[in-house]
Write a structure and sequence with these properties.
By secondary structure, the protein is α/β, with parallel strands linked by helices. The chain folds into two domains: 235 residues, Alkaline Phosphatase, subunit A, CATH 3.40.720.10; 147 residues, 2-Layer Sandwich (Alpha-Beta Plaits), CATH 3.30.70. 31% of the residues lie in helices and 21% in strands. An eight-stranded mixed β-sheet has the order 10-9-11-1-12-15-2-16, sandwiched between helices. Strands 3, 4, 5, 6, 7 and 8 form a six-stranded antiparallel β-sheet that branches. The protein has a two-stranded antiparallel sheet with strand order 13-14. Helix 9 links the parallel strand 9 and strand 10. The longest helix is centred in the middle third of the chain and has 20 residues. It is globular.
Amino acid sequence: MKFLFITLDGGGDVGEHTPYQTAKKPNIDMLAKKGICGLVDIGYKGTPQSDVGYLTLLGFYSSENYPGRGYLEALGVGMRDIQKEDLCIRGNFATLDENGNILDRRAARDETGLDELSEKLNGIEINGIQFRVRRSSGHRLVIILHPIRPNIKLSEHVTSNDPERIGAPILQIKPRKPEAKFTASVLNKFVSRAHKILSAEYVNRQRKFPANIILMRGFGKRKETQTFGEKYGMTSCCIAGIPIVKGVALYLGMDIISVPGATGYPDTDLEAKFRHAKNSLEKYDFVWLHINGTDILSHDCKRREKAGFIEKIDTELGKILKEINLKKTVIVITSDHRTASSPDYPHYRHTKDPVPTLVSGDDIKANSIDKFDEHSCERGFFIKGNNLMRFIFDNIKT
């Protein structure tokens, strides 16, 4: 049996007339009618984070063994020589105004000069720590702290400096545990020095929203885990446009399929991604296809455009369905979290609501739901935590 596991990042939404409800998606609804639909409760304790969602959907999340977003993002941007003593951080370029308050947490998503600015911060040394900096996708960057003197211990148990709202000053990074006091001090020194360096750069004087401050979160350290192949006995690959997804896939031992034009934004080449997914099913047992544009449009409060993007996804899915043998293939459509596309919701807009999910194929036991959306899925199955993969296997007819 083959598996095409489609994750529409932030695809689920909230309220009435959601994009899933208003979009014309005959192919997805056909899969819903012949398959089984329901909700998956990721089990978020705090703010929903995509990497936790991915690991949970694939059956791998554990709070004890979770390596942190920074480590996974570092893998995704190609920083593979990470030592156990290193500390990995996911950062944002952001805009700080002349009063010291956050003007934009993502530097207006303007990518102008961000590679150059990342390089300006790469190699800084503070108190025996070398800072390795690399640009990630969009407004993001990855920072690795590497001790260059003996007997220095870094801790991931520190707070973020992100106030998570505009109009507020950045926060001081503080230790969550006593052993993290040195780490917090070094990070605060780096943020201050980075602000001075970035503010003086010519490219920032040309930007409407200068990328002049670094917001830090997602602290993590290298950890090992069971691979996807070891857990499920299947060969697997991942198709994605953003580093964090590739990082999770690499962490689980999946191959990465590169697709030209896969940007992680609504302008991504959907046709190419679906074509590569279909072709990959010929070689791999499990193909994880990730699409990020649904999340971007939600964050930008573009509810109608999100529905239109779902329609484009449905069209491209329909093309490859003509060539896929559903007697030998299970198709899954799900999300890592819901993302509210309404401005009535808080700025972050990720919600903890269970995510709508469909599992379809000729050998899947169908239920009575004939369309795919949040409200229809409320009448279907309900799964908690790491149990989606096991549920899929249990519902294949034998």
